[in-house]
Structures are given as C-alpha cells and as structure tokens.
Amino acid sequence: MNSPSPIPLAASRFLASAGRIICTVVAILLLIIAATLAVAWPAVIAEAVEKGMELKVADIQPWASLALLGAAVMLAMGARMFQRLGWILNSVSQGDPFTVDNSRRLRHIGWLMIGIQIVGMVTGWIGTRLPPNHNITVDFDLSLSGLFAAFLAFVVAQLFEQARAMREELDGTV
Amino acid sequence: MAITVKLDDLLHARRMTLTELSEKVDITLANLSILKTGKAKAIRFSTLEAICAALECQPGELLGYEREP
Asked: Fewer CB within 10 Å: N-end or C-end of chain A?
C-alpha cells in the first residue's frame, strides 16, 4: 500500500492551524471594532465631521457595526471549519481517517460553508445600506464555488462513511 | 453465526498447534485465532487454500453449517 508522503500532510496541518488562528484573531479584532463603533460612534462621527467629511450618524450606524459583526461571524465560522479540518488531518496522521467522527466533521464543514454563504449574503445586503463614497465598501455575493465546495464536503462525508463500513467488513476478514 | 469453523478439531487430529500452523501458512497468529474462535466475518479463498494445504484437508472439513434455532 502506498503511504501518503508526510510533508504535504504536515503542510496541510500547518495551514489548517494557521487558518484557524488567523480567522479567530481577525474575528475578535472585528468584534472589538464593531463594539467600539457601536459605543463610540458620536465621537467618531464628530471627529470625521471636524475633518470636513459630510457625515450623518444615521447613515453609518448601525450598519457599519452590523457589517463588521457579519464579517466576524463569517470568520468565526471559518475558524471552526479550520479547526475541524485540523482534527481530520490529525486522524489521517494517526493512520485512521475513516471514522464516524470524521464523516460528522466533514458534514459540519459543509454546513459551515453554507452558513458562511448565508451570513455573507446578509452582510452584503447590510453593505448596500451604507452610504457610498465613504471609503467603506461591503461586497459579498452568493458564491457558486462556495456552494459547490459545501456540496463536495457532504459527498466526501458520504464517501468516508462508505469507506468505514467497507473497512469494518474487511476487519473481520481472515 | 450459522457457519462454524472446525479448526480446533482439525489441529487436534493433526497434533498441531496454532503457532505451528501460523508458521506453515504464513498467516498471523492473531488472524488464525480470530478464525479459530469463530469471530471472523469472512475468509479469503487464499487463506482457505493455505490452511487446507497445510492440514491436508478439504474446505468442508474445516467449515460446517448449523441451522440457527
């Protein structure tokens, strides 16, 4: 049997960990910015107006905070996705990837991908509420490739389940 | 299971131990033990052939069928 090369596996595990950490950190930062904006917007707007920008409070809030919140939720979902991917890769390195846990994790990743698309669409709609020409653009459309990736995750989850059943059958073969 | 493995009887008749059979047929002791205790779910033709060759018997002598109540 060909055993997979450990170098791509180690690289994938590193990428999954890095992705998870980056997503978590950026999500927390966005949450802090959203909360700060929500609390301190009068001061922020006053400063912006002082600098000569034509701004109205009602134009910006609560949409800016909501858009940031949406982005933070998407990143949190991304972090969970990377976390589960890391767990799957760990089980691959332990030599036993075809388990019930892994097919559940893959399905979870699929749902998270769909969740990211839905939250992204809502965030995109919030973005349209923000006034233009303020150097703030929120742009997110429903991505076909994102949905396809989710579909792929569900299919691979099915494959893992099938492989587990086949392996169980083989385990009892002498 | 309705299929029974009579490896124990055959080994007893041939005055052979499971370890000796394992060395002769090149199948691990653990796998032969699974077969002997009736825990195996399936048996490969190659395994059957090797055991029959080592014990000089027919597959029918190794396997039996008992109707389940």
From this structure: N
Q: Looking at the complex, does the CB of residue B52 fall below 8 Å from at least one CB of chain A?
A: no
Q: What is the ipTM of this complex?
A: 0.71
Contact B32 A172 (CB under 8 A): no
| CATH code of B10's domain | 1.10.260.40
Backbone angles phi, psi at A142, to 5 degrees: -65, 125
A166–chain B Cβ distance below 8 A for any pair: no
Residue B18: domain span? 3-65
Tell me the CA distances in angstroms from B51 to A45, A68, A167, one per residue in order: 86, 70, 24
Q: Which domain holds residue A109?
A: 6-168
Mean pLDDT of A42-58: 69
B67 in A contact zone (CB under 8 Å): no
Structural domain tally of chain A?
1
Q: In chain B, which residue's Cα lies nearest the Cα of A173?
A: B42
A124-141 confidence digits (pLDDT tens): 888 887 776 556 566 667
Count Cβ–Cβ pairs < 8 Å, chain A vs chain B. 23
